[in-house]
Amino acid sequence: MSRDRDREIQDLFDAARARPGASGSESLDAASADDAAELAAYALVFDALAEEPGDYLPADFADRVAERALAPRLGFAWFENVFVPLAVALVGLVAVPFAVTSLAESLASLRPLLDGVPLPLIAAAGTALVLAAFADRLGLAKPPEAGMR
Amino acid sequence: MDLERDVVRRVLAGDQAAFRALVARYQRLVAHVVGRMVPGAADREELCQDVFVRVYRKLDTFHFESKLSTWIARIAYRTSLNFLEKKRLPLIGDLEAEDGDEGRESRIGRVAAADLSPADAAEAAQMRAFVRGTVDELPPLHRAAVTLYHLEEMSVGEVALVMGVPENTVKSYLFRARKTLKEKLVSRYGAEGVSA
């Protein structure tokens, strides 16, 4: 059977489906007898596709879903999402200039040994490392999302 | 539509009974979409639950641009699709290319050798059961299309909305799925057996 003939037969059944009260047998009548086997096969396919498959959800499914969906969701984690980042930022604001100065001064005593090394840059990098370690310690570095399920 | 608006309004207002009623009303639709798309019964119920949890959490974003059933079906479809993608299961296969004319000929040969002679109403029911079972062998996107169109009686336009594809793509999925099912049926029972 050609692809076009398959399409014509399927269109016949679709048209019958769109008419309330119509059935596949009307489509059978409308087509030539040569296609009887194909039409009968398509009639079975269309009927089967409209049949209810077995139900696999438990009787108390709605209750289970409601229990899960309506369970109190964890409130917004103010401590983790607001206070800790705020505290880190504040500590950073206060500590960075002080730390940079102190480290620079400390390292300055080693200047004879470190002639030509940009000490303020090294001090800033060290401070950043300390702050990053601090933030990591507080759990701000989160693991990647585990996905939807 | 007024009933839908009322249910949605009540659920958003925190009416738990209204949410249970919403689940009870649409669980058949969700079960059909998930059940037809996801192989393996073990995952299906949990996925159906996931769908309704998402419906509950996103209900405030539903503004009645479509029917509520279409919106819920879309969530069920997307949830199933995400699941299949995570499992790296093929979403669409080229069954026709796999089978080809040669394959079809050989199947018909097997039918002739199978000596099956279904003839009465009971056998017609058996053939329909065979078709329903064979649906599971279709690619997931084809299964979704035939389920929404035939079982949920959605229009091609609604199916396209749920699946997020053009209408012509839906028509193509339907055509190929039904042609495959018809061929497998004829292959299994033979042309004479089917038309008896």
Structure in words:
The complex is a heterodimer of chains A (149) and B (196). Chain A is mostly helical and 149 residues long. Chain A is built from six helices and no strands. Chain A has helices at 3-18, 24-30, 36-49, 61-70, 78-108, 119-137. Residues 141-149 of chain A have low confidence and may be disordered. Chain B is mainly alpha-helical and 196 residues long. In chain B, helix 4 crosses helix 8 and helix 7 (140-151) crosses helix 9. Chains A and B meet through helix 1, helix 3 and helix 4 of A and helix 2, helix 3, helix 4, helix 6 and helix 7 of B.
**Sheet having the most strands of chain A:** none
What percent of residues of chain B adopt helix (DSSP H or I)?
Answer: over 70%
Strand content of chain B: under 5%
Uncertain segments of chain B of ≥5 residues (pLDDT<50)? 94-118
User: What is Rg of chain A?
Assistant: 37 Å
Number of helices of chain A: 6
Interface with most residues: A-B, 37 and 49 residues
Give average pLDDT of chain A, whole number: 74
Q: Let me know the largest β-sheet of chain B.
A: none
Mean pLDDT of chain B: 83
Structural class of chain A: mainly alpha
> What is the overall silhouette of chain A?
elongated
Summary of the model, kept short:
With 149 residues, chain A is mostly helical. Chain A contains 6 helices and no strands.
Key features?
heterodimer; A: 149 residues; mainly alpha; 65% helix; B: 196 residues; 0% strand
